[in-house]
């Protein structure tokens, strides 16, 4: 059976499964639409949380980032995994006990203010749209390669699929769809990872493969260092980011993870606070399976790519300069990815030889988002493995996109319409607003998927920075500070989101240069600065204004006492 046939079969079967689950679990009430009725078993919720959290950035782009920038990409690994621990231990149980299933709902009630609620809605929508842009772009990349369409058409196909199971099923449909998607994506990531590990190192555990010895006698990591230096790149284990930027980026990703609205809502889909903690533990296990494999997969991909276009790793280890490979001798996978526009070769000296380096003589441009998808083809793995990776990549992107779109629709229908603009709307009307908002959100998400501001992981990193500078401080202070009031929370959120957005827009869209960055902090790391400003402004303003009402202070005191389990409320 041909690769194209297998790919259509795998992706088509997974789509049929997702849509079937959405129809079976169609939401009939706002509680089912928002929190799946609050009755999801912890292990299933753990799988759904892992799928929701491990987006296209984790499946498609993270290993690509690690393979190209080495040590600097450790910020993504440490920030995203550390942030989930922070969320599970520090915030989620208290939010679950508070009983509100959206971030704006918590902020609105904790700070006894519709103004605070509205600002939280705006922050949530900005975060979610930035994040979902990366997911839709990931879907477009997958479809462009495997369905032989351009990336923009691929984005549109992804929009149509998400529409069915996000708009129809709500959180109930999304939850059980994401359980299936986790099973698909983890198989799709780990099967080729094990194949590659055995092929490159002789060991079947990709988690330990970077230290394994190649035929040259050097480890994978040492070989990557030698190859990177020879080709003019920074040493793989050294990196190019400053320690300050690396620290700020890690902190932004960590605190941003803890403030992500679509992950927080997952802790309201289980019956009790205890179940929220248990499902968090399961999610950590499910996430760790993939994340501990990423460095090995990244290393294999980098070595295989360079061997394909620039000679072998053994040549690099011997100290003999690589001279490139004739274009006609490069395997078929190269031309297939050229057709997508994600690999570009320009024969500058008309010698018919592909030359890859970080010099002016470089003839090859590689989009780092293709590394995980192209890895099985570069390594000449069986066609069914390649098709499985395609299905897994789609599952990763669509699972997170659906969760984010639900958060956007919930913020508009529940927090804005029901709680702020028109409290008298019926349950049926609220559900209609939610579905309408989801449709609009899908259209906007598609636009950003067609016009993304960077690589998938970079776009997602910006979303985490926006979450870190806006809602994370408001949530943290709302739980642990009885003195924090409306004025402080509002002022902090506004300063945090505005300063960070301004920095991102200037350096991503207005031509800001690296030399102009404050202390060398990249846009991906500036969320930490915005977060610090948020904390400072909130503290100063709250100390200069009236204390919160006594009943609010009592609520803050009560939610930290480990007794009872407030049920998630839909009204």
Model description:
There is one protein chain. The chain has 24 helices and four strands. The chain is mostly helical. A two-stranded antiparallel ribbon has the order 1-3. Strands 2-4 form a two-stranded antiparallel ribbon. It is globular, with a radius of gyration of 24 Å. The C terminus is likely disordered.
Strand content: under 5%
Q: What's the tally of helices? A: 24
Percent range of helical residues: 55-70%
Largest sheet: 2 strands, antiparallel
Mean pLDDT: 80
User: Which structural class fits the helix and strand makeup?
Assistant: mainly alpha
**Alpha-carbon Rg, integer:** 24 Å
Order of helices and strands: HHHHHHHHHHHHHHHEHEEEHHHHHHHH
Enumerate the strands of the largest sheet in spatial order, edge to edge or round the barrel.
1-3
Shape: globular
How far apart the termini lie comes to 53 Å
As residue ranges, the low-confidence spans are 312-321, 564-571
Beta strand count: 4
């Amino acid at each position: 059976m041909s690769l194209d046939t297998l790919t259509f079969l795998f992706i088509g079967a997974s789509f049929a499964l997702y849509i079937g689950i959405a129809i079976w679990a169609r939401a009939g009430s706002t509680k089912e639409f928002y929190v799946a009725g609050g009755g999801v078993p912890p292990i299933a919720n753990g799988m759904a949380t892992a799928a929701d959290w491990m987006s296209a950035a984790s499946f498609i782009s993270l290993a690509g980032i690690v393979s190209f920038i080495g040590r600097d990409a450790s910020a993504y690994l440490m920030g995203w995994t550390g942030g989930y621990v922070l969320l599970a231990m520090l915030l989620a149980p208290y939010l679950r006990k508070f009983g509100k299933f959206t971030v704006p709902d918590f902020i609105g009630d904790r700070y006894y203010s519709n103004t605070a609620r509205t600002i939280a809605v705006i922050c949530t929508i900005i975060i979610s749209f930035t994040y979902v842009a990366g997911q839709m772009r990931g879907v477009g990349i997958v479809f462009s390669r495997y369905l032989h369409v351009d990336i923009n058409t691929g984005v549109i196909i992804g929009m149509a699929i998400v529409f069915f199971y996000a708009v129809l099923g709500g959180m109930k449909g999304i939850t059980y769809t994401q359980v299936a998607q986790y099973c698909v994506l983890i198989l799709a990531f780990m099967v080729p990872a094990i194949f590659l590990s055995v092929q490159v190192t002789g060991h079947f555990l990709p988690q330990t493969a970077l230290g394994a010895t190649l035929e040259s006698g050097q480890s994978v990591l040492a070989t990557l260092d030698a190859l990177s230096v020879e080709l003019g790149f920074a040493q793989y284990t050294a990196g190019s980011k400053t320690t300050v930027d690396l620290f700020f980026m890690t902190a932004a990703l960590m605190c941003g993870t803890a403030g992500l609205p679509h992950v927080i809502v997952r802790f309201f889909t289980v019956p009790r606070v205890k179940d929220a903690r248990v499902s968090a533990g399961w999610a950590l296990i499910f996430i760790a399976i993939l994340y501990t494999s990423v460095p090995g997969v990244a290393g294999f991909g980098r070595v295989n790519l360079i061997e394909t276009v620039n000679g072998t790793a053994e040549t690099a280890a011997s100290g003999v300069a690589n001279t490139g490979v004739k274009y006609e001798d490069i395997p078929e996978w190269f031309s297939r990815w050229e057709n997508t526009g994600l690999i570009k070769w320009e024969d500058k000296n008309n010698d018919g030889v592909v030359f890859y380096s970080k010099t002016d003589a470089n003839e090859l441009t590689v989009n780092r988002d293709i590394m995980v998808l192209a890895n099985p083809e570069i390594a000449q793995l069986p066609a069914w493995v390649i098709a499985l990776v395609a299905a897994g990549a789609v599952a990763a992107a669509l699972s997170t996109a659906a969760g984010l779109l639900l958060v956007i629709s919930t913020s508009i229908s529940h927090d804005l319409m029901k709680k702020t603009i028109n409290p008298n709307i019926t349950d049926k009307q609220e559900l209609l607003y939610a579905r309408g908002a989801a449709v609009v959100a899908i259209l906007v998400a598609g636009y950003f998927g067609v016009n993304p501001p960077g690589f998938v992981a970079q776009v997602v990193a910006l979303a985490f920075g926006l979450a870190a500078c806006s809602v994370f401080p408001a949530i943290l202070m709302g739980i642990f500070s009885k003195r924090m009031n409306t004025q402080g929370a509002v002022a902090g959120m506004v300063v945090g989101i505005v300063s960070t957005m301004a920095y991102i827009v200037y350096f991503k869209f207005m031509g800001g240069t690296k030399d102009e960055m404050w202390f060398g902090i990249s846009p991906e790391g500036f969320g930490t600065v915005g977060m610090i400003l948020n904390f400072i402004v909130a503290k100063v303003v709250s100390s200069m204004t009236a204390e919160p009402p006594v009943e609010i202070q009592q609520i803050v005191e009560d939610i930290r006492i480990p007794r009872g389990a407030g049920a998630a409320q839909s009204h």
